[in-house]
Amino acid sequence: MLSEYHQRYVKMSDAEAISKVQVKETGLRQIFASVGYQVPTAPELRVMVLGCADIRFVDQHRRIFSSILGKPVQLTTADVVVEHLAGAAGVIQHDATLPLPDVPYDVIYGDVLIRFVEPSKQLSVLKNSYDALGAGGIAIHVFAQEDYDPPPGHQAVPGTYKVDVNSLQLELNKAGIPYLEVPLHFDVYKPGSTTERMLINELAMVFRK
To answer: pLDDT grade, residue 109 (50/70/90)?
Structure first.
C-alpha cells in the first residue's frame, strides 16, 4: 500500500506535476551554468536520481538531463520504496544511506531527498553520492528553504526532518569532501496558470570529482 506521501502525488494533477518539473529543470540549468560543468566525452552519460516521488518524473528526469547535457543518458532511479514507480524503466530499490550500487556515475541528483533521512544519517547520503562519482562527475543535492530555514508556523511534511546545513558543512569539511553551494532564486508559473508566478528559493550543495 502506498504511503500517504506518495498517495498525495498520485492525486496530483498533471498541471501540478508539470510545475514541479519546471522547478527541477530551472534549478538544474542554473546549477550546471553556475559551476561551469564540463560534459564528459562519453557518448552516453550515466545518471542516478536518488528518490522520486512520482512515476511521471522518471521520464522527465531523463529528458531534462539529456537536454542540459546534450547527450543520451542511461538513467537509474533509486528509492527506498519503489511501489509508486512500478513499470518505470531503470528503477531500483536502494537506501541512499548505504553505498550506491553499480558505480561510477557521471551525475547523481537528489531533489529535497535529505529531508526524508534521519539527521544522524544525512551526511552518509552526501558522502555516498560523492564516493559514487567517476572522474569529472558531479553530485547535486537540492534543499528546499523550508527544510533548513523554515518560516514561523511552518508545518513539516510527516516523516521528514529539519536539515542542519551548517552541521553538514562542518562534517563535510572534517571528512575532506569538497563542495560548492549554489543559491537558487527564480520564479515559475503557478500550476495551471499562464500569468501568475511563484517564487522559488532553494539551495543546492554540489560535489565534483
So the answer is: very high
**Spatial separation of the C-alpha atoms in residues 93 and 95, rounded to whole Å:** 7
Chain centroid to Cα 122, Å, comes to: 14
For the chain, the domain total comes to: 1
Residue 182 CB contacts under 8 Å (≥ 6 apart), including other chains: 30, 31, 34, 35, 203, 204, 205, 206
Q: Band of the pLDDT at 158, cuts 50, 70, 90?
A: confident
> 546545513: which residue's cell?
165
Give the mean pLDDT of 132-161.
91
pTM above 0.85, yes or no: yes
How far from chain centre, in Å, is Cα 154?
22
Using DSSP's 3-state secondary structure scheme, residue 184 falls into strand
CATH number for the domain spanning 123: value is 3.40.50.150
Three-state SS string over 37-64 comes to CCCCCCCCEEEEEECCCCCHHHHHHHHH
